[in-house]
Automatic annotation (TrEMBL):
InterPro entries: Acetyl_CoA_COase_a_su (IPR001095), ClpP/crotonase-like_dom_sf (IPR029045), COA_CT_C (IPR011763). One of its GO terms (molecular function) is acetyl-CoA carboxylase activity. This is Acetyl-coenzyme A carboxylase carboxyl transferase subunit alpha. It holds the Pfam family ACCA. HAMAP family: AcetylCoA_CT_alpha. Keywords: ATP-binding, Coiled coil, Cytoplasm, Fatty acid biosynthesis, Fatty acid metabolism, Lipid biosynthesis, Lipid metabolism, Nucleotide-binding, Transferase. The gene is accA. It catalyses: N(6)-carboxybiotinyl-L-lysyl-[protein] + acetyl-CoA = N(6)-biotinyl-L-lysyl-[protein] + malonyl-CoA. It comes from Niallia taxi. GO terms for cellular component: acetyl-CoA carboxylase complex. Residues 37-291 form the CoA carboxyltransferase C-terminal domain.
């Protein structure tokens, strides 16, 4: 597993405990007292490290190569998932996963960004950065959901929309703008969950929902810390300072009213236990859909409108 700088002492102590456990078994030596002391020390160290994380630490966890993706969560949260492909205009974009499924027996439409876990898959999925056809595929699915009155669940996890020449030629900006416009007026419940990085318009294109929830160590911003540092200080090495000032973490965004709920992560990050993390997401998702399902179509549209209208109010106060 990739080691992060800030939790290096935790990883080293865990490895030490494992070494002692293995040695104890092989040599048939009782080291239970020593192991117990180290486990208590580990518990204290984890508390110190993970309860005092800086914004840059959370950025590193959000970018962790082993962080669970949309396809990792789907089997734990939904049943009968059937993936649907293509935008019916140009082609299929593997950076967007979409389909229909059931959540506790309720038919829903699931849409999410999808990055790879290794180089080969990342290339196939364009590192989770969608082309216009990806957003048009998502739009096709949300319109289908609106037609058949299925709630929509969106998983956000992208550095941003792909900025390449081909994407611009096929109408990247228009595709994102069309999604924002159409999702704003949907007459079905829309719940959005940031599970990793939420970058710029590429994330917002799936983020116009009645509720926006974030995993505890996810980020949501208009630009990456490196990009902001390059603009502000002409030095991308100042990314750590930029992350502090940009207010891109879940606690900051919750305070500003942009995020509705912070979903707790398993200690050390979601990549340590996907199943346990999925249960945390399930609890929040169930509560959100239960509340939204009780609303009329007009109330759902108004609820979504009021949510976005209220963003930024604290700045003027």
């Amino acid at each position: 597993m990739v080691e992060l700088e800030f939790d290096k002492p935790v990883v080293e102590l865990k490895n030490k405990i494992k070494e002692l456990e293995d040695f104890s078994k092989k040599a048939n030596v009782d080291l239970s007292t020593e192991i117990e002391k180290l486990e208590k020390r580990l518990e204290k160290l984890e508390k110190e490290v993970y309860e005092n994380m800086k914004p840059w630490d959370r950025v590193q966890i959000a970018r962790h190569p082993s962080r669970p993706t949309t396809l990792d969560y789907i089997p734990y949260l939904f049943t009968d998932f059937m993936e649907l492909h293509g935008d019916r205009t140009f082609g299929d974009d593997a950076a967007i996963v979409s389909g229909i499924a059931k959540f506790k027996g309720l038919p829903v439409t699931v849409i999410g960004h999808q990055r790879g876990k290794d180089t080969k898959e990342n290339i196939r999925r364009n590192f989770g950065m969608p082309h216009p056809e990806g957003y048009r595929k998502a739009l096709r699915l949300v319109k289908q959901a609106d037609k058949f009155r299925r709630p929509i669940v969106c998983f956000i996890d992208t550095k941003g929309a792909y900025p390449g020449k081909a994407a611009e030629e096929r109408g990247q900006s228009e595709a994102i703008a069309k999604n924002l416009f159409e999702m704003a007026s949907l007459k079905v419940p829309v719940v959005c969950i940031v599970i990793g990085e939420g970058g710029s318009g590429g994330a917002l294109a799936l983020g116009v929902g009645n509720y926006m929830h974030m995993l505890e160590n996810s980020t949501y911003s208009v630009i990456s810390p490196e990009g902001a540092a390059s603009i502000l200080w002409k030095d991308s090495n100042q990314a750590k300072q930029a992350a502090e000032r940009m207010k891109i973490t879940a606690p900051d965004l919750k305070e500003m009213g942009i995020v509705d709920t912070i979903i707790p992560e398993v200690r050390g990050g979601a990549h340590h236990d996907v199943e346990a993390q999925a249960k945390e997401i399930e609890t929040v998702l169930f509560a959100s859909l239960k509340e939204l399902k009780a609303m009329t179509e007009a109330e759902l549209v108004e609820h979504r409108y009021n949510k976005f209208k209220a963003i930024g109010e604290h700045i003027s106060e």
